[in-house]
Amino acid sequence: MNATVQPDLPPPDIQGMTLLAAGDFLQALEPLRLALARGDTRPSTVLNLAIAEDRAGDRLRAHRLMRIVAEARPEWDEPVLRLAESLRAAGDHAGAEQAYRQALRINPDRIEALIALSGQLLLRGEAAEARDLLLRCCVLAPRNAEAWNTLGLAFRATGAADLALDAFATARSHDPGNVGYALHLADAALAAGDAEAALQRLEQAAATDGANPALLAARGVILERLGRRQDAIHVLEAAAVLGGNDLTIQRLLGNLLVRSGNAARAEAVLRDIAERDPDSAQARNDHAAALMRVHRHAEAREILLQLLERDGPHVSVMCNLANATACLGLQAEAVAVARRAIEADPDAPHPRRALCNTLPYLHGTTGPELLAAMQACSSRLPRIAQPPLGNTPDPERRLNVGLLSGTLRSHPVGWLTVAGIETLDSARFAVSCLVQNSALHDPLARRFHAAAERWIEVDALTDDALVATARAAGIDILIDLGGYGDASRIMACANRLAPVQVKWVGMQAHTSGLAEMDWFITDRWETPPGFEALYSERLLRLPDGYVCYSPPPYAPAVKPPPALSHGHITFGCFNNIAKLTPELIEAWITILNRIPDARLILKTHQLTHPETAARLRACFKGIAPDRIETRGSSGHRVFMGEYDDVDIVLDPFPYSGGLTTCEALWMGVPTITWPGAIFASRHSASHLSNAGLADWIAPTLPDYIAMAVERAADLPALAALRADLRERVRLSPLCDAPRFGRNLGAALREIWRDWCSRRSDGHLD
Amino acid sequence: MNVISRAADPDELCRQAISCLDTGRGDVARPILAAARALAPPSPKLILAEVRMALTEKQFHQAVALLDSALLAAPGHLDLRKRRAEVRHSLGDWEGAARDAAEAITLAPADCDCKALLGMALLELGLLPAAIACLREAAAATSNVRYLEALSRALEAAGDAAAALRVLTDAIARGEAKPSLFNAAIVLNIRRRDFVQAVDLAGQAGALGIADAGTFSLKGHALCSLGCHDEAACAYQDALKLAPEDPHVRHLAAAQGCASPGPRAPAGFLKRSFDLCAGWIEAHLAGLGYRIPELACDVLRQHPSIRAGNPLGPVLDLGCGTGLVAVALHGLPVGPFTGVDISPNMLAQARTKRLYAELREADITDELRGGKASWPLIIAADVISYMGELGDILHDIRARLVPDGWFIFSVESLLPDRDGVMPGNGAWALQRQGRYVHAHDYLYDCIAAAGLRVIRQDRCSIRREAGADVPGLLLTTSPARA
Lengths: 765, 482
Hints:
Oligomer: heterodimer
Structural class of chain B: alpha/beta
Helix content of chain B: 55-70%
Shape of chain B: elongated
Distance between the termini of chain B: 81 Å
Strand content of chain A: 5-15%
Structural class of chain A: alpha/beta
């Protein structure tokens, strides 16, 4: 909108200057141009017009006008300084630096030029010169907070951590409401190893200025680094409220919530940031990742596709897209995206990791193919020379067993491992949990916590620091429970956290491929003899199953098969959609065609999304829509209770159900499975065998189909099985925690003895 | 650069703080409340939020101070008055709570919360008929579970256990699915020894999706009492899944073989267990043929002082329970009696005997370590059975005996199981009832290591269980001479 110059208003130069001062750059343009057109060539008028043109976007014209004024008034530093700032804003750092130097030649004490030139110098690594300029600047303007802050940055860049801390503290004291200064101070305190004292100072300051959001933000940063993550979240939440949802604080909060596994809240905060900062690809990518963590993969995928369309290929976005796509059951497309990400950055581990996480879901993936993909990923992990491990090679001593995981809570990893950990002989083994995403409000997390002698939260640790922490904790046997999944820290294992490293549950789709992963916990059903070549690790076969299921105490009672009351059989599959391949759906269509009144219930998080559910139902071509029921998220007890509506579970292939199969068994529902060659394809076969139901394992796909038809026809047998299945499972090795704990302890002892023996034989450093 | 504009609406900040308190985020609320207070004089709404904040931090006196000053300014503010009644109640200031609640009733005669507050305060003051009347009125107007539980407690205290139970079961029948309600009803049934009904209620709770460690523990207790030990083990296992850090639950689960046993029964376990059974334990023990106090009396008759017709002096009765030892020794020249027990309900039963000069509520370990007196006679009848490791306790007892003092105690004997395997660690084993049994060798080693000597050893039956004697020892010891 153009400003109208009224005759009764002040002269146009004054109007323009007033509008400029008020920040109305566009409206200032017209009166200032008018003033110039009327012959007002005074330097102040021309410079004001230049500033307005600059802010309005016509940089070339602005620069030309600024240079005219500078030539006309060579003793005046202002036009040169304005030119420098415009050049800096345009990204012309060399031009800006030259202009700042010119401004300082005209006026050596010009504070803005000293600070800005120092900033430019810091950008190109000339920290010492910047520091010297700033020291002079701080003498000239001892109350200028920005000068002290920039001096802090210069000290930090020259390695003077203590001086940086003092400088930031001075900056903050002159401008206590500035969140940037407060955060620099917090970072400097952490870098100087002064976190506790800094926290104390901030808490003292809070006594008089407790509602200062900048102060709270700094406290939040320090609290997190001190391992007090929940306190940090609370403080940052308060800072966000008191700071009017300032973006810097929101980002700190959002990222902390992600690291804390607080997925729902993180999604809300990151969504807010993405909406308020729509140009930021990072913000949208982060939001998409958060959506994936709350199982809203369709929305995440939409955002990621838009981002790629708008900003072009970006590896991090492509990796997220690959995972989101797989989780929507589009396995081939997901693998293709992961492969494109690898092409874009062949040497980076992350795209390889995306492939490792999508490939196991793709029908037809072979064991050797998966082994190669895992090895290609793990070989690209950074490795740094480490000092020798100092663990005492005594084969019979009490061992320190470390669990490395981001999912020691109500999660498949938790349900399948906690009972075994609880029942390890505490006289022979001490358990140390190296925990990412610690969630001590969670009942399973509390069980791990109660069983552990040490609980070390590792979120804030870099991989290097994690290696150092694990080694300092004296971990003898490190068990990775994360694989290449979200919140995993297996990358650190490439630098050895412990002399013996073991892969167990947790994205245990197949081998880790990691040369430094020594053992792989399995059983004779998951990896029968002859499967060794498909694994980079040595196979540690437990005598029964490779996991121990700990049923939830709130599971509803088992009810009779629904077919008895409904008059038709109901199949079910409550697995993640990522496991539902076109080939699997084709097999299910065949089964449904052979039993014309049978129904199929599909239930999982992603089916809460109506379009996803509709798309899945549409895949069942030729089957009446009312025969396929989709169900979305529910609480765990309700989830378990919904097995009341299912007579027989049809296991997905190639990626078999794990915990889901155990839960179905606990609810009295048997699973028909067709195991393949890769580890992920054999979970149900292991659990069924362990529970004494090996006769539900089909050796071929036609057998899988035939078994479904045949078992569905024998309702009395189904009812009889269901009536005592829970008790049978409870008494089986699948749920026999003390027995599992003994077996696990014996296996861990065996591999420790092996390490001791190899070490004494000189096979190890 | 990055200067934040601060939020400036105190009402909005107060609303946000309350939302944080509602979602259990008190630490978030604290600075927001401080900011709201800095912006404007505090409103009653803000004061009430600050009181909530103080209560979440267990700062009860600070909460009262906030309410005192707010009520000075606004004495007729109903919510402030009710809140102070609640806080005073939490502090054990029953009279103050009753005054505030009564004042609140005058401000809002139809407010059932005020009546409930008054009823709960009167219950604590022992004014049962008035408490019951108030709580009945409140419970009739609202289905607040807390009021129902208080009414049930009041009725039970007034001796009408059936009505007390009916209050709870009626609420359950109406569909109230609160764990505390079920647990209170199960406890009442256990106290009445109606274990079948207790198990049934626990089953109903489970069917409603209640997953509460307390409910599962009580179910285990009731199942054990019915002799259904396998099912009890499952219940205790589930309880332990929900409360893995609770030593009481862990002890119960360990007793069923579901976890590693600790070196002694946790104090919380003993307190809760004996509080539960205080009303009927004497009759129960009589039915089991328990007669350790009488056997101790027989032993004591042989004490040189008593045989010489001289009084023995003060007696420390460790784990005195309902006072059976004092009853058994009443005819001997011993006393005065000091009884120590961890269960207030048991002590209340002991008090009715009027045989103890002093009764103290304490864990016996704390009592022995905290006291200074030396005793000529210490008795622990059926008490050491709640300890696995005995080294420390015997050492502590030795330190509290006069040079010629006697310590008389009973233990259950550790015996091989049916397969000839010695349970436990060879020294002691935890049994299904949550009691420990001890190997005799271990016992003698501990006695000697504590500086005691065995004066007398009597093999005896501690009680009868399932029709069979439970073998044990009654040991009489005295400090070893240097």
